[in-house]
Design goal:
Blueprint (H helix, E strand, L loop, with lengths): L1 E7 L6 H4 L2 H8 L3 E7 L12 E2 L9 E2 L1 H11 L4 E12 L2 H7 L4 E6 L15 E4 L9 H12 L8 H5 L18 E2 L2 E2 L9 H19 L1 H12 L22 E3 L12 E3 L2 H28 L6 H18 L7 H37 L1
Parallel strand pairs: 1-2, 1-6, 5-6, 5-7
Antiparallel strand pairs: 3-4, 8-9, 10-11
Helix pairs in contact: 7-8, 9-10, 10-11
């Protein structure tokens, strides 16, 4: 069972939250336990004061160290994870909700007024923000956290419902419909009425991707970052160059088209990944060239094939020096250039022999 302690200045704000819907059922079924703790109970000052004016001047009041420290020391056990709700925390998302749902004991501290004395950060395990906007206090963020975590605890809701949640695969949920089949000219898609579950699954997957591209393209970008690595994205809609990525020494290429999202240009920034991709791309180009050289050296070819291959070798050597020299090891590239020089000599010698043979035949006929 997951236990959640919530430390707050306004315990009554949680009355409705805990007596309705899924949270109430989870509490009744003992899947979770939520205790609301009043921060003022840990104050030794007159009128249970927990805040004071900031040093250095300024408006508002700041939550003091002493009552928060005392509360945490009282409530924290060996396996308790202490979370502070604050605008300076890391942005909250579904992945974090899933991570926290596996904890056994959480202590959530709600801020208020102008925030916390900075020293309080020293006794918390994690600082979390639910968004870049201002609220009157941390109570609503604490409810958001508690709700999103609780529904992921096994047995709180149906497992199938959890699997289809938005953001579960970095995508929004697919469109859903219920009766009637048609309302004000808007019809339920025929595929959902077909009974063909394979086609329904395919339709839902495509619609999930489509909805995400239209409404949350940033999630698509995030998904590709996990697959490819760091990169910058350009398109003809509304995604601009990624901010905060140094492209100076990046490796640029045009990827193949994907069903999930059309990426027109990719810039790799991780040195080890650049080396891997650059070497793979170079070796693919070399394999094509080596096959062409093999034809010229070992098989019958037309008179222009040798000259063409010699030109391709020159181009490859130039490409290795000007492009791949920035990304791959000098020793590897030096050996490669030597190999190409040797092959170039072989092709040139064969071309010379071919010319000598032609000249000899011409002279022989003239006798």
């Amino acid at each position: 069972m997951l236990k959640i302690n919530i430390l707050t200045l306004f315990p009554n704000m949680f009355d409705g939250f805990m007596t309705e819907s899924i949270i109430k059922r989870a509490l009744d079924d003992k899947k979770i336990k939520i205790d609301i703790k009043n921060l003022r109970d840990y104050s030794d000052k007159k009128h249970n004061q927990v805040d004071d004016t900031p040093y250095g001047g300024g408006s508002g009041m700041v939550l003091m160290c002493e009552p928060v420290f005392k509360a945490v020391e009282d409530l924290k056990k060996k396996n308790t994870k202490v979370i502070m709700m604050t605008p300076q925390g890391k942005p909250y998302n579904q992945k974090k909700a899933e991570e926290l749902s596996k904890e056994k004991d959480l202590l959530i501290i709600c801020g208020h007024y102008e925030g916390f004395d900075e020293r309080i950060s020293s006794i918390v395990d994690e600082e979390i923000s639910i968004g870049d906007y201002v609220l009157t206090g941390g109570e609503i963020p604490a409810m958001v956290l508690t709700d999103s975590i609780s529904r992921l605890v096994p047995g709180v809701i149906d497992e199938g419902s959890r699997e289809n949640d938005s953001f579960s695969e970095d995508l929004l949920d697919y469109p859903t419909y219920t009766k009637p089949r048609e309302y004000r000219g808007m019809k339920v898609p025929d595929v959902l009425l077909s009974g063909d579950h394979k086609k329904i699954d395919e339709w839902r997957n495509k619609e999930s991707i489509k909805k995400t591209r239209e409404k949350r393209p940033d999630l698509i970008k995030s998904k590709y970052r996990k697959t490819i690595g760091k990169y910058s994205v350009y398109d003809n809609q509304n995604i601009k160059k990624s901010i905060g990525i140094d492209l100076k020494n990046s490796y640029e290429f045009n990827p193949r088209k994907r069903d999930l999202y059309t990426v027109n240009k990719v810039y790799l920034c991780d040195p080890s990944f650049i080396k891997k991709v650059a070497k793979m791309t170079l070796e693919r180009k070399l394999n094509v060239l080596f096959k062409q050289i093999n034809v010229v050296l070992n098989e019958e070819s037309d008179d222009e094939a040798g000259a063409y291959v010699l030109g391709e070798i020159d181009k490859m050597q130039s490409l290795i020096i000007t492009l791949y020299g920035k990304y791959l090891d000098n020793e590897y590239l030096s050996l490669l250039l030597l190999k190409l020089d040797a092959l170039k000599s072989e092709v040139s010698m064969k071309e010379i022999k071919k010319i000598d043979t032609v000249d000899y035949n011409k002279k022989g006929r003239s006798r």
